[in-house]
Amino acid sequence: MMTGLVLSACSGADDESPATSTPSPSGSATASASETPSGTTTPSATETETDAPPPEFATVDEADRPFAVEEVGAYDSPWALEFLPGTEQLLITTITGEMILRDLDGGREVDVEGLPDPVVAGQGGLGDIVVGPDFEDDRTVYLSWVEAGEGGTGAVIGRATLEESGDQASLQNLEVIWEQQPKASGDGHFSHRLAFSPDGEYLFVSSGDRQEMTPAQDLGSGLGKIMRLTPDGQPAPDNPFADEGGVSAEIWSYGHRNPLGLAFAPDGTLWASEMGPQGGDELNRIEEGGNYGWPEASNGSHYEGEEIPDHTDDDGFNSPEAWWTPSVSPAGLMIYDGEMFPDYSGDALIGALSGQALVHVDLDGDQAVAGEIYPMGNRIRDVAQAPDGSIWVLEDAGGANLLRLTPASD
Ligand SMILES: [Ca+2]
Ligand SMILES: [Ca+2]
């Protein structure tokens, strides 16, 4: 049966192309103007669209937003931001391979030296940056990027020490501690988002399906998974498939497509935002050993219009806790625990690429209710909480702004 579903994934059409999210009546195939590589099956003309009616969301006008927006910086193709505990600084990565250390007030910006030389193509390049669990003592940071090797390209995680002296900053003792396996052709769906568990014991990484789809269901492949590693990049002890050894021992959950957001709630729950195909974007609550269905179940459809069975309660897959059709293209994800925005306490905020919005999801323990969509006028790549509880939003692509959100005055 699966062979019928293995249509070519349009390369990057979901998250790296300019905004195309004209909401369409559910079921119409609008995205297939792009390439159909030769040799692939022609999509069936007998499209059977059974997508469930999508949830409806409140789109909030600018005048009614609960936050004021201040532009505090501008960067070329930024990908991630990370506040540095115990300092008044943050790090910003760009997909083209730069890292900037800046003061919160923007008074000083330093290009960090000693970076790896990533493969920059399509969705690949320099990726995420997170601090290690003991950053204030050891200045250890973890970053992800794309490298080339046998079989194509793949993400890696590196660990390094952030050193700073005068007006210079650099990564020292950079070592690769993990590789996405196997490497694959193409330049999409690396995912490579990083998150430490609140206790600092485990490093989680999202490993996208590299647009090959079916490996997401293969526990012998490292693609389409979320991995749980030790801070040294080794498979964490007692992972659900540890007995299988090899890459299987890294796997925490599977059946993922392109999870570009990964964050822990204060209660220890791990959440991941995942880009669906044509529709069916997801926010998933990540459980040990969970199978999230891709590519056998999705509330969206293939770009070519062929339907994928929707998630159901009894299909054996973990269903998304919140989902979006048409696509908003969720990227960076944060769970808010500051005091500046009490209404967001414990809730998820997600940057939307094609949706050009900030998306709020009301979280209450295991429950998630997709809430407001705040149009921002630009693709949003990442979002993070500053030490003062303000929300910092990083736009995408060239000429991207870094935005600081504070409560709107009445
Ligand atoms: Ca799913
Ligand atoms: Ca579907």
TrEMBL record:
Residues 1-59 are annotated as: Disordered. InterPro entries: 6-blade_b-propeller_TolB-like (IPR011042), Glc/Sorbosone_DH (IPR012938), Quinoprot_gluc/sorb_DH_b-prop (IPR011041). Residues 18-47 have a biased composition (Low complexity). Residues 76-404 form the Glucose/Sorbosone dehydrogenase domain. Gene3D superfamilies: TolB, C-terminal domain (2.120.10.30). PANTHER family: ALDOSE SUGAR DEHYDROGENASE YLII, HEDGEHOG-INTERACTING PROTEIN. This is PQQ-dependent sugar dehydrogenase. The lineage of its organism: Bacteria, Bacillati, Actinomycetota, Actinomycetes, Micrococcales.
